[in-house]
Amino acid sequence: MIKSVAIIIPVLNPDSNLYSYILRLANSGYTKIIVVDDGSGPEFKERFDQIKKIEEVDFLRHDINLGKGRAIKDALAYYELLPDKNDFFGVITVDADGQHTIGDVNRLAALMVNHPKALSLGERDFDQEKVPFRSKFGNSCTRNLFKILYHIGLKDTQTGLRGIPNRLIPDFRKLAGDRYEYEMNMLIACSQQRIPIKSITIDTIYVDNNSSSHFHPILDSFKIYKLLLGQFFKYSAVSILSFLVDLLLYSVLAAGLEASVTAYIMVATIGARAVSSFLNYFLNHRFVFKSTEKMGQTIWKYYLLAALIALTSGGVVTVIYRVIPKVHTTIIKAVVDTLLFMVSYQVQKIFIFKKNHIERDNRRTRTV
């Protein structure tokens, strides 16, 4: 049995089975079990008093509900201050609703010990008939969107059974998010930092059709998808702003020049594009992708990409128009440029504006 892994259990309004579950974890050899009461009601005090008596339990409490993400981060902060922290390979987060069997926790512990530089996940099988439709549909949408945006294929992006090795804890505990979106931010950080993700398939258990879950379908889903799509929306907003600046500058320059029609159109076009393209580059570098690389390392790649996109657009539109001349070139260009817009986003994110540090939550960690 793996004994050198600590356990973190965030808890809100626990059922009567939590005590026996923690006791089984302790009897299985886990000597450090950090339980975080995330603002449960006073009617649950007796259950927590019973849990506190378990020798292996370290008990933390939030006076009010702050969210699963905050509970995990506060437990990680507490773990980092333990004098015997180096006796452990890291921590495993476990849900309090009975979805994770002791056997699966043991297997994930073994996986984490064998891969001390990776985030380890226990992934549920959502193809089973017993999985509630809400959970199956939600996970399918989220995992497919995550694969498109971050190029990592996972079966379960919302699993609560996760192994976090010691080397990842200092950065992971500072990630943004106080509720369920925090767990998604872990996966995004792994994508951005090239942190490997290892996984095992675990039992898919739903108690009373998952009625004990504290996941808010609307609010928590909004936060997760806001996190997933936030960077792309910023990229789109910057592109629209750059387009408007380009149009405005073109109008100003064209109105102020006295020359032949061809001359003033070219001068106005080049001048406006020079300013708007640099604005687009600067905002993508600093605001959208938050690259830590110096501008000199990225600007030439950005303009090379811009030139390739322009040439590709012109070439593809020309070829398509020759094949189907009945379609107006404006329509063809709109379709082609939309696809190239998506390609440009992925290329800029992966190859141009590399991110060398995990995005951090600038807010100070609350004391427990």
Round the Cα radius of gyration to an integer and report it: 26 Å
Helix and strand run = EHEHEHEHEHEHHEHHHH
Low-confidence runs: 356-368
Q: What's the pLDDT, averaged over the residues?
A: 82
CATH superfamily of the largest domain: Spore Coat Polysaccharide Biosynthesis Protein SpsA, Chain A
Structural class: alpha/beta
What percentage of amino acids are in beta strands? 5-15%
Total strand segments:
7
Q: Biggest sheet: strands, sense, closure? A: 7 strands, mixed
End-to-end distance = 31 Å
Q: Helicity level, as a percent range?
A: 40-55%
Tally of helical runs: 11
The CATH C-level name of the largest domain is Alpha Beta
Query: How do the strands line up in the largest sheet?
Result: 3-2-1-4-6-5-7
CATH architecture of the largest domain: Alpha-Beta Complex
Number of domains: 2
Query: Under CATH, the topology of the largest domain is which?
Result: Spore Coat Polysaccharide Biosynthesis Protein SpsA, Chain A
Shape summary: elongated
Indicate the topology.
Layout: E1 6-11, H1 18-27, E2 33-38, H2 45-52, E3 57-62, H3 68-80, E4 90-93, H4 102-114, E5 119-123, H5 133-150, E6 162-165, H6 169-172, H7 181-193, E7 197-201, H8 219-256, H9 261-288, H10 295-323, H11 329-352
Parallel strand pairs: 1-2, 1-4, 2-3, 5-7
Antiparallel strand pairs: 4-6, 5-6
Helix pairs in contact: 1-2, 7-8, 8-9, 10-11
